[in-house]
Amino acid sequence: MDVDVHGTVAEGFEPVRDAFVRNFAALGDRGAAVAVYRDGNKVVDLWGGTKDIDGTEPWARGTAQVVRSATKGVAAAVPLLLHQRGELDLDAPVGEYWPEFKASGKERVLVRHVLNHRAGLPVLDRPLTPEDALDPLRGPEAVAAQAPVWEPGTDHGYHALTYGWLVDELVRRVTGGRSTGEWIASEIARPLGLDLWLGLPPAEEAAGRTGRVGRVDDPEPSGGLRLRPKRSVTEAYQDSDSLTRRAFAAITPFPDQNDPAYRAAALPATNGIATADGLARFYASLIGEVDGVRLFDRATVERARAEESAGPDRVLVVNTRFGLGYMLHGSASPFLSAGSFGHPGRGGALGFADPDTGIAFGYVTNGFRKTVTADPRAQALVRAVRAALG
Predict the structure, then answer these.
(1) 154: burial class by Cβ within 10 Å (0-12, 13-18, 19+)?
(2) pLDDT reported for residue 150
(3) Could you tell me which residues come within 8 angstroms of residue 36 by beta carbon, excluding any fewer than 6 positions away?
(4) With contact defined as beta carbons under 8 Å apart, do 348 and 27 qualify?
(5) Which of 1, 76, 163, 329 could form a disulfide linkage to 269, CB 3.0–4.6 angstroms apart?
(6) Any idea which residues carry the catalytic annotation?
(7) What CA–CA distances, in Å, run from 58 to 33, 50, 51, 55, 383?
(8) Which residue ranges of the chain lie beneath pLDDT 70?
(9) DSSP secondary structure string, 128-172?
(10) What is the pTM (predicted TM-score) of this model?
């Protein structure tokens, strides 16, 4: 598909524009944007195609999209910043802050286990309905009642949906009731001027199809990683008893991602909304100053990217690597270099930072694919950034 690509690239970053154009011509992108910062300065700002996957209105500079699990990387900044401020102990039991959580053998679940996907709570024995999932009380109540499916701290597996309720309730307990979305809005998005929301404000949700947030497609969530383990993630997803299927079915059926009620809710695992610039600027502020604002100090950057979990993932089947709240560079989540940290969104979106090169990256799309990580369009852009850096 031939599209008009808009925006700018700094000298030397022309390969990113070339790759972005090829994503439309050869990889089927319908509407997308990519932004890259280097040392706090924007060096790539591109967009093209249509705002809606099923429409004709052009993608504009400020078009935003649901970014699925790329939300997790934004949400992870909140507990890490609370720790940085001395308000949250990463090695404390979760039950110290959230007494109801101690039920069903979870007394030894630590805060860091929530962030490094070692809590043993990727599934719910009783999945939530969409209505219950959007209620800020029901999700935390469900995970507080859930028994771990492995001994906490002994293994890791991607907490695809439960991660959000775990993080959100921890944040509420530590901050006296402020939700993760409220904390992000006041402490992260506002100081940095980010087009990024966890819980879309009414002012950004116009009636019908006239708002700035585009409509996405919603393929059946199966398959994804182009690796060949003994059992593929597709096979695991098709097995109704597998942790893979149960983890992604913690909300059944999954809500319509174009529904205003879904976009207005705050699910820190999955329904953040952002522009590509919002994602990239956020990650730039984690590793350096952006217009005088820096979020993470050097010690917190090292915590975010220090390996906490690695090897066969009990949910995603393939090998994964996690720091505290962030995926780390590896075969399942290729970023720029070994020191990168960030998070992909199921179906395409990607945000990450690479402290060693000063690069921060954001890609959003309305054309979701049946991928969990390593989307080919995002990866083509990452390779182009690497080529631009030489």
Answers:
(1) exposed
(2) 98
(3) 13, 16, 42, 43, 44, 280, 359, 360, 361, 362, 385
(4) no
(5) 163
(6) 69
(7) 12, 4, 5, 9, 27
(8) 206-210, 219-233
(9) BPHHHHTSTTHHHHHHHHPPPSS-TTS-----TTHHHHHHHHHHH
(10) 0.95
Distance in angstroms (rounded) separating the CA atoms of residues 154 and 363: 34
State phi, psi for 307 to the nearest 5 degrees: -65, 125
Distance CA 199, CA 223 (A): 28
Q: Per-residue pLDDT tens for 211-229?
A: 799 999 976 444 334 444 4
* pLDDT score for 371: 76
User: What is the C-alpha separation between 264 and 204, in angstroms, rounded?
Assistant: 10
Which domains does the chain possess? 1-64+357-390 (no CATH), 68-275+292-344 (3.40.710.10)
Q: How far apart are CA 390 and CA 211, in angstroms?
A: 40
What is the rounded CA–CA span in Å between residue 29 and residue 21? 9
Reading the block at residue 361, the tokens are 């990256």
How many distinct helices (H) and strands (E) make up the chain? 15, 12
Residue pLDDT, tens place only, 328-362: 999 888 999 999 999 999 889 999 999 999 999 99
Contact 43, 37 (CB under 8 A): yes
Confidence at residue 372, expressed as pLDDT on a 0 to 100 scale: 72
Q: What is the DSSP letter of 87?
A: S
Tokens of 375: 């989307």
- The residue whose two tokens read 């096979």 is 235
